[in-house]
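Forwarding the complex inputs:
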Amino acid sequence: MEEFKYHYKYPHPSVTTDCVIFGFDGACLKVLLVERGINPYKGRWAFPGGFLKMDESALQGAKRELFEETGLKDAYIHQFHAFSDPQRDPRERVITIAYYALVRISEVKAGDDAAKAQWFPLDKVPSLAFDHDQILREATIALRRQIHFEPIGFELLPEKFTMTQLQHLYEAILDVKFDRRNFSNKMLHLGILTQLEETVILPNKKEAFLYNFNAENYQVLKQKGFRLEF
Amino acid sequence: MEEFKYHYKYPHPSVTTDCVIFGFDGACLKVLLVERGINPYKGRWAFPGGFLKMDESALQGAKRELFEETGLKDAYIHQFHAFSDPQRDPRERVITIAYYALVRISEVKAGDDAAKAQWFPLDKVPSLAFDHDQILREATIALRRQIHFEPIGFELLPEKFTMTQLQHLYEAILDVKFDRRNFSNKMLHLGILTQLEETVILPNKKEAFLYNFNAENYQVLKQKGFRLEF
DNA sequence: TCAAAAGTGTTCGCTATACACCCATGG
DNA sequence: CCATGGGTGTATAGCGAACACTTTTGA
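Prediction (whole assembly, four chains):
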C-alpha cells in the first residue's frame, strides 16, 4: 500500500502524450518510431510518448517527448486528437493526447538514447503497438488538412530548398502529382517564397534555383485572409 | 480515508468532456450554455460537460452530455481539442476533451433538467467559467475549418430549407457575405442539393423553393475527392 | 409609394490546367 | 545518342466575382 500514495474518490485514467514525428527525405514522408523494450507489445514499434507530469500541459509534455527523442526544442508541433478507447491499453485505462511534429531529419540528433529509434517511410510502417496504427492514420489526415490552411510544409525542408524539393514534399503529403510548371507558378504567385541569389548544383550536376520561405510576407498575407489551395 | 478508495502510484488528472453545442436560428449561430449552480464560478455560464466514466470513450461521454442537455442522440459531434493547462480548474488538475455538436434548435427539448440552459448568439456570449472562453474560440475556429472539408452545415438546418437559409448559415459560420446569385449557382453546381417539388411561403408571403441535402450524391462526390471552397 | 426580399443571366477576368521545346549531364 | 531532369511560355476552358431588373407584399 505504501507505494500507492495518491488517493481519489473516483477512478482516474492515466494520461499520456504521444508524438508522431514527421520528416521528409526529399522523396517520401517518414515517421520516427521507437522499439518497445518492455511488455506489452515488447519488440513492436510505437510513437514516442509518456505520462503527462502533473505540472505540465499536454503541449509541454509533447515537446518534452520530442526533445528527448530528437534533441529539438523549437520544431513545429500540433495537437490533433485525443485517443480514449477504454481498452486501448491492456494494462489500465490510458488516454493519450496525440501531437504531430514536423522536423528536418538532418537536424535530428542520432539517438544517444538507449531506446532504438528509426525512421520509417509512411508506406513501410510495420504494424504498431497499441492503437498506434490508428494514431498514424489520424495524424496523416490531420497533416493533410492542416497544410491547406498553413504553410507548414516548410518545417520539413531545409532553410534553402529547390522548387522540385518543395513540389515533392507537397506530393508526398497530399499523395498527388503536380505539373512542374504549374506548381512553380502557383507557389511563386502566392508570394510566400523568396528566390535567392544563389543556386545549387544538384547531384546530377544540374544547376537549380534556391528559395526560402518568406515568413514576414506570409504573416501579411495571412491577415488578409489567405488560404493555400491544392 | 474511506471515501478515497482509488489508489495510484503516481498522480492522475481528472478527465472530463465538454460539449460546445452549436445551433442556428436562421440568422445567427448560437451556443447552448448552462449556468453553474455551484462553486467555483457559481452563477457563471459554461458548456455542458462532466467527468468521463471509466468504461466509456470520450466520444461516448460527449454524446452522453449532449443527450442529457438536449435529448438528442444522433447529432453530429466532433472532437476538436483537449485542454490541459495545469491551472485551468482551481480545484484540481482537470483535462478536458472538448467536442462540438451541431444540432437543430427546434429539435432540442426544453431543459427539463433543473440546470438552467440557454441559447446565446455567438457575439453575445458572456464571460464564461473556467477557460471556456478559450474553448469557444477554438471550437469556432475548428468549425470554420471543418466546413471546408465536409458539408456539416446541413446538420444545423431543417430537413428542408431555402437557399437563403443556407446562405445565411454559411455567412454566419464563416463571417462573410456572399452574393445571392453566385452562392446559389455555386451550391447547385456542387451537386449535393436536391431542389424539391414543394415550395414554402415565407413569413413575408414570398414563395421560396425548398431544397434538401443529397447525402447519397455527396458520398459519391466525396469518393472522387471533393472539397468545398469558400 | 417605398422598402424588403425572392427569382433570374450575362459579362469579364483570372486562374487552373494541359502541354512542348531547349539544354546540360551521365551513362 | 539517349534518358534524365531542370528551365521556360502559351492557349483554353472553366470558375469566381460583379452586377440590374422584375415581382410581390407589408408597412
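Residues 162-164, 180-181, 184, 202, 204, 206-209 of chain A lie near DNA strand D (CB under 10 Å from a C1').
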